[in-house]
Amino acid sequence: MMSAAGKSGAMLEEDPDQTYENVLAEIQSFELPIEATLRSVYDDQPNAHKKFMEKLDACIRNHDKEIEKMCNFHHQGFVDAITELLKVRTDAEKLKVQVTDTNRRFQDAGKEVIVQTEDIIRCRIQQRNITTVVEKLQLCLPVLEMYSKLKEQMSTKRYYSALKTMEQLENVYFPRVSQYRFCQLMIENLPKLREDIKEISMSDLKDFLESIRKHSDKIGETAMKQAQQQKIFTVTLQKQNNVKFGKTMYINDRIPEERNEIVLKHAFEEEDENEEEVLTVQDLVDFSPVYQCLHIYSVLGDEETFENYYRKQRKKQARLVLQPQSNMHETVDGYRRYFTQIVGFFVVEDHILHVTQGLVTRAYTDELWNMALSKIIAVLRAHSSYCTDPDLVLELKNLIVIFADTLQGYGFPVNRLFDLLFEIRDQYNETLLKKWAGVFRDIFEEDNYSPIPIVSEEEYRAIISKFPFQDPDLEKQPFPKKLPMSQSVPHIYIQVKEFIYASLKFSESLHRSSTEIDDMLRKSTNLLLTRTLSSCLLNLIKKPHIGLTELVQIIINTTHLEQACKYLEDFITNITNISQETVHTTRLYGLSTFKDARHAAEGEIYTKLNQKIDEFVQLADYDWTMSEPDGRASGYLMDLINFLRSIFQVFTHLPTNSSDHAAMSGKVAQTACMSACQHLSTSLMQMLLDSELKQISMGAVQQFNLDVIQCELFASSEPVPGFQGDTLQLAFIDLRQLLDLFMVWDWSTYLADYGQPASKYLRVNPNTALTLLEKMKDTSKKNNIFAQFRKNDRDKQKLIETVVKQLRSLVNGMSQHT
To answer: Any stretches that span the bilayer, and where are they (predicted)?
Structure first.
């Protein structure tokens, strides 16, 4: 919009007279500021204000004329009005006197009324004040009553209700009476009351945390007991169902299946008895301090502080609970206390999780459980490694299973605990193996290593009921009779089954399939056979007090144990219901174990037999310078041959109730006999060639020949049946050809046929012949035969020299060829 000055300037340029008229109109209007209008008059054109003044004077004169006209028009009316007013003055004065007199009389008459009215007003004011006081008291009384109620709630420790009362006072009652001083005092006191409530509730919470730490083991014990009862009931019910559907299974205590109904009935009775005694965590612990403290802090708007404090304190308690005692591994009670405290801790946390909102969360409990689980596994892994008693390890396993099942029932993952049980299972097997190693040693120590005598049918049935022995020929024989194995065989078989039962006990309740349990049983049984029993057998075989007869009996025993391995496999199959034809079924390695033991026993027989031969040979007392033989074999050799005959008679008289036994005993006897003859031949040859023996007479050679003849007679007498032809006599062929060479003095034939396949002295080594010949040559000076020979036939002396030279050349030729 254009300003007034702008408009005036524009108007002066168009029509000056009209413009001045407009300016005057604006000045008279009193609507616009006059300053801008006058400025436009004086600023736009030179001398414009003079023209404007002229216009203004003209306008003033016009107005004066109009005013004069109006006054002339109304003058007569004004004069008339003044005249009328003068007439009224007299009446007005009279009226004033009357009014004054009336007022005086009225005032005099109203004085009494005024006094009464003032009394009424004063009463009205008092009444109004009383009413006001009553209203204010009615307004204040609820506040005072509520504050009194607050004090009562504080004294009776109803702190949550007290906080609610404070809220009502602050939000509802105090605003009504906030202007009063007592209200201000109450308002100032409320923060202190709140702090007192926080301190008291926190103190109660600390007492609760201390109490819950002391009662954790009782809570955990109750929870684990309930979980165990539930599991026993479920397992028993499942067993009854298996019986109804015709499934065969072995029970832990080997209770016959027909007793399952009794067991189930007993389980139901126990369930009924315990039903009244079932306690929950609420029955054992008063959680009101937690609820109260949580509600108090929630009302105070400080819930986060309470949550942080609670979680921090419970984490500290968790670390204390997870710290085991140093001797925990010594008794099962130590493990039980450890587990019950942990279960009690997490049962409380689970209860807090479900009955409160936000105090603990699932994420918090999971984090706490994962931390605890890692610590638990580390503790169990460390402490269980000290356990050497399989019964303690088994009880520990049962505790871990109950512990895991209990916490799993509260929603905590426990797979890692069952993985740990597989580690402990390996340790359990190791402790079982050590225990059974002692059992096997005791069985072997108590065995008499002789066939089991049977005098009655009852004894026979009792033994075959424990050990799977079948021999139709033996059953036909009359009593008394003997079983081929010794007492250790059925005992070993029974103990292997007991080991399988013991191993099975650990495999139960591990939530594993029958295939896995079958595999575990077979592997642990294989360890028992291939490591423990095999080691015990080898140690037994090596013991010095075990003689040849005992070794032969051990060979027979291992044969029967080997045959019993298939029954052990059937035994495991009946337990697990896993067929042996399954692709992944592990086979028992008992066959190789007992074969190795049998081979070791056979080798020990040969070794002991050779040692006995060496003992007899050490008794030999030859007079190597004798001129004539005694005419009979040496006494030590005859004793040795008699000993060998008696030993081989034991071999041949072993029970041969089956072709297997006969073949086994015959093979061992033949090998032992051949080994004994070869060792005896070697020992006799070494006796002749001993470097410490410097001189040998022909008489000594002849005497030695008599002993070798007895050895050959022994070999030809077939001390052990089964040799073909003169196989056994070939053990002495080296000695025979050497002695024949010296006895006949057939050097020309030996030297002429040396190296020929058809040589009569093919087995005589030139070095051997040279050694013996030099020993005989050294005795020629003392030997009468050689003395006479030198006198009567010096050509023979030259012949000896010639033979020695030729033998040496043969020996040198052999060395160069080699």
So the answer is: none
- Asked whether the bond before 390 is cis by omega within 30 degrees of 0, the reply is no
Upper half-sphere CA count for residue 326 (Cβ side, 13 Å): 0
**Rounded distance between C-alpha atoms, residue 474 and residue 423, angstroms:** 48
Residue 512 to residue 296: CA distance in whole angstroms: 49
Tens of pLDDT, residues 410-445:
888 888 888 888 888 888 888 888 999 999 999 989
SS3 of 222-267: the string is: HHHHHHHHHHHHHHHHHHHHHHHCCCCCCCCCCCCHHHHHHHHHHH
Phi, psi of 719 (to 5 degrees): -65, -25
- pLDDT tens-place string over residues 244-254: 544 444 433 44
**Between 327 and 447, where is the model more confident?**
447
As a whole number of angstroms, the distance between CA 192 and CA 715 comes to 118
Question: 779: helix, coil or strand?
Answer: coil
Burial 140-170 (b: 16+ CB within 10 A, else e): beebeebbebbeebbeeebbbbbbebbebbe
The residue that leads in pLDDT, 61 or 44, is: 61
Beta bridge partners of 452: 483
pLDDT > 90? residue 125: yes
> Measuring CA to CA, which residue among 385, 399, 413, 418 is closest to residue 340?
399
Check if the beta carbon of residue 41 is closer than 8 Å to that of residue 23: yes
**What is the residue-averaged pLDDT of the chain?**
80
CA–CA separation, 625 and 623 (whole Å): 5
Task: Please state the φ and ψ torsions of residue 363, each to the nearest 5 degrees.
Answer: -65, -40
Q: Which DSSP symbol is given to 585? A: P
Question: Token digits for 813?
Answer: 């030729």
- 581, burial (CB in 10 Å: exposed 0-12, middle 13-18, buried 19+): exposed
- Using the predicted structure, report yes or no on whether residue 87 has a pLDDT greater than 90: no
Is residue 241 over pLDDT 80? Answer: no
pLDDT of res. 278: 54
Q: Which residue has the tokens 């926080």?
A: 198
Are 495 and 533 in contact, with CB atoms under 8 Å apart? no
Which residues does 176 contact at the CB level (< 8 Å), separation at least 6? 139, 143
Of 622, 623, 627, 621, nearest in space to 780 by CA = 627
pLDDT tens digit sequence for 674-707: 888 999 999 999 998 888 888 888 888 999 999 9
**Residue type at 636?**
Y
Q: Considering only CA atoms, which of 401, 385, 383, 394 is closest in space to residue 503? A: 394
Report the 10 Å Cβ neighbour count for 268.
Answer: 13
Task: In whole angstroms, give the CA distance from residue 686 to residue 613.
Answer: 13
**CA pseudo-torsion sign 426, 430, 436, 440:** positive
Which residue, 136, 134, 231, 130, is CA-closest to 178? 136
209: CB partners within 8 A, 6+ apart:
313, 314, 317
Number of Cβ within a 10 Å radius of residue 517: 21
Closest CA to 382 of 333, 346, 423: 423
Alpha helices, DSSP H only, in 528-547?
534-542
Torsion sign (Cα): 203, 205, 208, 210: negative
The pLDDT assigned to 259 comes to 37
Residue 453, strand partner residues:
482
Which letter, b or e, does each residue of 70-81 get, where b requires 16 or more Cβ atoms within 10 Å of its Cβ?
eeeeeeeeeeee
User: In whole angstroms, what is the distance from residue 132 CA to residue 145 CA?
Assistant: 20
pTM across the whole model: 0.65
From CA 689, how far away is CA 691, in angstroms rounded? 6
CB atoms within 10 A of CB 313: 15
C-beta atoms surrounding 68 within 10 Å? 10
